[in-house]
Amino acid sequence: MKRYLIGLVFLVTLAGSLCLAQTNQPAIIEDFKPSSKNQPGQEYPKVNSQGYARFQVVAPQAQSVVVSLGLGGTRGGTPLTKADDGTWMGTTAGPLEEGFHYYRLTVDGGVFNDPGTLNFYGSTRWESGIEIPAHDQDFYALKDVPHGNVVQILFPSASTNTSRRAFVYTPPGYDKDQSKRYPVLYLQHGWGEDETAWTNQGHANLIMDNMIAEGKIKPFIIVMTYGMTNDVKMGGLKNFDIKPFQTVLLDELIPYIDTNFRTLANQPNRAMAGLSMGGMETKTITLARPDVFSHYGLLSGGTYSPEDIKDKSKVKLIFLSCGSFENPDGVTKAAVALKGAGINAVSYVSENTRHEFQTWRRSLHELAPLLFKDK
Q: Which end of the chain, N or C, is less packed with Cβ atoms under 10 Å?
């Protein structure tokens, strides 16, 4: 497990290491519009049709303002230039990939969030966020379709001596037909994020609503909870012990969900998936307890090998995915090996994305239709 965690940290670092400075870029088109993640009424940050981002910060007394993009601000910096009126402005040296990006401001050496944009929990702190419109954004767009609900629950946890929080997505129509029961996907976030990530950054509820409206998937419940049980600072993932979280998930959260929601409370109708660190949690827990989950999903979170699966009869699906700038050969070859061993395995590679939420939005969009299919 230690080797996997080291590899995971390396993957995140590698994914965040792209420098924005690029050469021979085309002329910037001046069709900038406010990012969809802005605070109400705020004009900046802006994005244009090419994927460039432009930032403006009001800091008359500052001596230096830099925008750093990526998880933990690791994807290079964009220095802003001060104008006579005390505002600072700058444009990224090159276009950003489609989708959601965390970012932060460094003002005279201090780290701050941009007051122009909404905040999203990542890097173990609330970060600013910007959205680069994607060519395929329609699948997670807010549409005039029946919508499910995302409710916050507080469930008792004797093992941690507290009440813990989870968010539960119930599909459209859940409250109308009181006789119907649903399968459940337990969906985990990544390192430095929390249980808000899959709906705030990932739009998981909108992805589900749209596919259900299109008749592409069998409706199911999604449960999203905080995947950490001990206080681990950034860089200290090697100190994370999964066993307490496994206890919370299996012995406390799942029984609570099965008691308080209309679930199909059995192994064939229960799935677990996660992105990045959540993939590590998914792999560890599903292999330890194959009697609980029948569908497994690792989204930029490693792979399974045929040797990992001790009882093929208990596994209905293994889904492996990543961005094309991550390890596409790894997930593709792993799925081929699993299928060769008689296991239903599917791989998916998100084109032109990295270790980021556009990869995981697309991955959920590909995974959901494969879950809980009737034979």
A: C
Listed in order, strand segments (DSSP E) in the chain are 33-34, 46-47, 53-58, 65-69, 77-79, 81-82, 87-91, 99-107, 110-112, 119-122, 125-132, 149-157, 162-170, 184-188, 221-225, 270-275, 295-299, 317-323, 345-350
Residue 294's φ and ψ, nearest 5 degrees, are: -115, -15
pLDDT for the residue 236: 58
Domain ends where: 133, 151, 169?
133
Same domain, 198 and 320: yes
Residue 103 in domain: yes
pLDDT tens-digit readout, 275-312: 999 999 999 999 999 999 999 999 999 999 999 999 99
Q: In 3D, which of 284, 339, 282 has the Cα closest to residue 312? A: 339
Per-residue confidence at 231, pLDDT binned at 50, 70, 90?
low
Residues 160 and 81 in one domain: no
pTM score, two decimals? 0.90
How many other β-carbons are positioned within 10 Å of the β-carbon of residue 106? 16
Residue 231 lies in a domain: yes
Using N-to-C axis directions, what is the helix angle for 204-213 and 357-367, rounded to 10°?
A: 30
**What are 56-100's pLDDT values in tens digits?**
999 999 999 999 998 765 666 899 999 999 999 999 999 999 999
In the numeric block, the tokens 């919508």 are attached to 147
Range of the domain at 251: 139-370
Count of CB atoms situated within 10 Å of the CB of 359 = 29
Q: Is position 118 within any domain?
A: yes
CA distance linking residue 22 with residue 183, whole number of Å: 47
Q: How far apart are CA 360 and CA 104, in angstroms?
A: 22
Q: How many domains does the chain have?
A: 2
For residue 187, the domain's CATH number is 3.40.50.1820
CA separation for the pair 203, 199 (Å, rounded): 4
pLDDT classification of 26: cutoffs 50, 70, 90? confident
